[in-house]
Amino acid sequence: MLTQPAPLAELADGLRSGDLDLHAYIDTLCDRIEQVDPQVQAFLPEPARRARLHAAADELLATFPDPDDRPFLFGVPAGVKDIFHVKEFVTYAGTAVPPEEFAGEEAVSVRRLRDAGGLVAGKTVTTEFAFFEPGPTRNPHNLAHTPGGSSSGSAAAVAAGLCPLAFGTQTIGSVIRPAAFCGVVGFKPTLHRIPSAGLVYFSRTLDQIGLFTQDVAGMALAAAALCDDWEEVSLSEDDIPVLGVADGPYLRQATPDALAAFQRQLVRLEAEGFTVWHVPTLLDIEEVNRWHRRLVFGEFAREHAQMYARYRQLYRPRTAEIIELGKQVSDAELNDLRGACIELRDRLEKQMQQAGIDLWVAPAALGPAPAGLQSTGDPNMNLPWTTVGFPALTAPAGRVNGLPVGLQLVARFSDDELLLAWAEEIAAIVGEE
Questions:
Q1: What SS3 class is residue 227?
Q2: Residues 173 and 380: beta-carbon distance below 8 Å
Q3: Looking at residue 237, what is its pLDDT?
Q4: Cβ atoms within 10 A of the Cβ of 178, count?
Q5: Is residue 222 within 8 Å of 209, Cβ to Cβ?
Q6: By CB count within 10 A, which of 32, 104, 130, 307 is most buried?
């Protein structure tokens, strides 16, 4: 096991105050990357990483010499998934297609990281164009298992202590699932709460930027710096959310072992005073799964129409397959499917209101990380929540067959602040298993 503690909140406090020397920390981090990443392969290679980070640290210290004036993420190094454009780096997007074909200006989210005092630790490995063709990254808990995808490198880097914060994206389940597989906290804010400009897009309708940390407190710090119009919330002891379980075919997608672990998590939460309602929900999940994929495949095919025509032989088989499938989706059907996302969101929010539910809870994946690197796992436990753009978070919640699993928490559209406020206590409870 190649994991190491690296809680963001504690680290950020030390760097801001100066109790933790920034240059010394960079050397420690780079030593860790050089020691561990040849096995985990979370980052794209960068021979001059140490020198680049020290130069960036000099500039940051000159700009903010007074600890009292330092921003939230002063000196915090973040891994950035290699579908984000970052000014010092070429964007490869996990593909053999020439990178100049999709070059672009630095992502808005990366600029926000810099504005908050953060540093770019490096580019992290992604599956090809953020779909299912995997890269070389391995799970730090067991190198014979997948870290999940498509944000493979970001989840693995945080779990291995190679960086305390990392950026990913989710179009189906590419933040929540790898976070669960790697035993870290994953957070996907409400749709477009972090602007997506500056990505190599998969689906412009549903691509959503997400984050990885080891701690919920650190995630709240990062979210406050990166999300639009963040407002801190203060909860009283009586502010306990009512939890909803989506009973029915959606939940039955998970494996028996994962469902048994989920039931143990619910028992722990009820013992601590949480109310759990079991509500028949997403009874049409097979149909939702089907049309979600038609929507994103159709948009992906249009995104790549010109490049695919020129470089078809360079696309890996599963990526080429979804382009061919996406070509069969008409413009009229795409418009209908975009409308279906809104209709499903309205239906779920109405059900939450009628049942008095504040958070949906579910397994974060069908089970623990599968063995082998040929597959990144099934994202169906995340799919409906991504479809409707709800904010979602996974917290580490014990192990199944020796590997981490996560508890997925899903709030109403735009209730990101409440989700993170509630998540800290829930994470502490289920993390004890």
A1: coil
A2: yes
A3: 82
A4: 38
A5: no
A6: 130
Average pLDDT, the chain: 97
Q: Which residue bears the tokens 């020397």?
A: 21
DSSP one-letter string for 267-286? HHHHHTT--EEEEE--TTHH
| 85-91 LR contacts (CB < 8 Å, sep 24+) | 85/110, 85/198, 85/199, 85/200, 86/110, 86/120, 86/123, 88/52, 88/120, 89/120, 89/122, 89/123, 91/123, 91/200
Tokens standing for 294? 């038609």
* Average pLDDT of the residues in 378-396: 98
State the burial class of residue 19 (Cβ atoms within 10 Å of its Cβ: 0-12, 13-18, 19+): exposed
- Is 174 one of the annotated active-site residues of the chain? yes
Contact (CB, 8 A) for 211 and 397: no
| Number of neighbouring beta carbons within 10 Å of residue 421 | 18
CA distance 219 to 211: 8
Residues across the chain: 433
pLDDT for 325-376, tens place per residue?
A: 999 999 999 999 999 999 999 999 999 999 999 999 999 999 999 999 999 9
Beta-carbon contacts of residue 271 (< 8 Å; ≥ 6 apart): none
- Out of 109, 152, 154, 174, the active site residue is 174
Q: Are 52 and 88 in contact (CB under 8 A)?
A: yes
Q: Is there a catalytic annotation at residue 81?
A: yes
pLDDT in tens, 212-258: 999 999 999 999 999 999 999 988 888 999 999 999 999 999 999 99
| Long-range Cβ contacts of 328-335 (<8 Å, 24+ apart) | 329/294, 329/295, 329/297, 329/298, 329/301, 333/294, 333/298, 334/295, 334/298, 334/299
Rounded Cα–Cα distance for residues 288 and 73 (Å): 38
Q: Give yes or no for residue 429 having a pLDDT over 80.
A: yes
Which residues does 340 contact at the CB level (< 8 Å), separation at least 6? 291, 295
Q: How far is CA 397 from the centre of its chain?
A: 17
β-sheet bridge partners, residue 78: 120, 165
